[in-house]
Amino acid sequence: MQQHFDGLTFVIGDEAQLQAMPDLAPFPPFAAEMLALLQTFSRLTLRDDEAKAWPDVISLGFWCRAASLNQMRAAYGDLAHRYGRGVALHIAPGNVAANFAYSLFSGLLTGNANIVRLPGRDHLQVPIIVRLLCAALHEHPALAPYICLLRYDRQQGINDALSALCDTRIIWGGDETIAQIRRSPLKPRALDIAFADRYSLAAIDADRYLAHADKGKLAQAFFNDTLLNDQNACSSPSLLVWLGVETQAAREQFWQHFQAFAARHYPLEPVAAVNKLTRLYQLAAQYPGVKKVSDDDNLVVRVELAALTPGVMALRGNCGFFMEYVADSLNDMTPLCDARCQTLATFGIEKTTIDAWLAARRPKGIDRVVAFGQTLDFTLQWDGYDLVALLTRNVANTL
Question: What structural domains and CATH numbers belong to the chain?
């Protein structure tokens, strides 16, 4: 059936290239050609003056370094009989600027041709990344047919046409976005991978924090986890759980350091300040014992909870809005660790303690446990999915 693509705006590629993608031969995962393309992108990015103004763009460049890519490859065993599934359609989220690139690069590393719907929001980082990717493709023209970047509004006909081309569809977004895209049928053997809207938590041992020598550095790490992207990423913590004895002293020092760093590096928009106060009032109206424990400048709004009730995470905020709870143990967090809970960021808590808690409580959520400063570090195992396994097919050769 003839597909119609009226309404598409191509940023990289064109309609003829798009139509030809299903006929491209997939590469094996971590193919030398793909590695070379991403390493060129890394080199160009890390030398680019405009890119250096954006930490998330530079982080993307570091992610594509040869050492980083080799480490990813080393994490997998024998991939000799795996090949990309074919065409991957990526529906990028609107709230995190560089996410489309990580999704695209995952598709390239697993040997696929890739169609990417760019975020609809006007992130300034997106044209920088696109420009650098175009420059990298100029040095690797044979791989240009494997990448189409495009934009379009929420048009069912275009979703239908693009979904009919793909062998894997990767959807980043909220429940409504996922439901809308899933109205478009896939080929019988095509797969859907949905990265739904989720939330993340942080847990910190107060006594070990007080003994920590470089509290300023830890404040910067938590800033990178949160305010670097306005807490818009699912992996950015919105609730901080305190453990230990000296929780009051630790909280005072932690937030003093964090507030000082944020004051130098985070511009507070008036609308964000209003939204944070609105969220505070909503929480206080619905959950008894909620109280504001931060000062009055609204750069950082801290809300102390009297209990960890599962529904409270639906009222999480962003742009410097943090809920806090003083817990007796990790067990207190269990009610919040349902399927919507993605990442647990920790400081001062032993890995064995976390492993024992996970084994005992077996929560349906928490797909990642990372140290402070690492919540935004994208890997090929994300949201509980192994992207190398899902974006490739295995040829079972029993000869």
Answer: 9-197 (3.40.605.10), 199-371 (3.40.309.10)
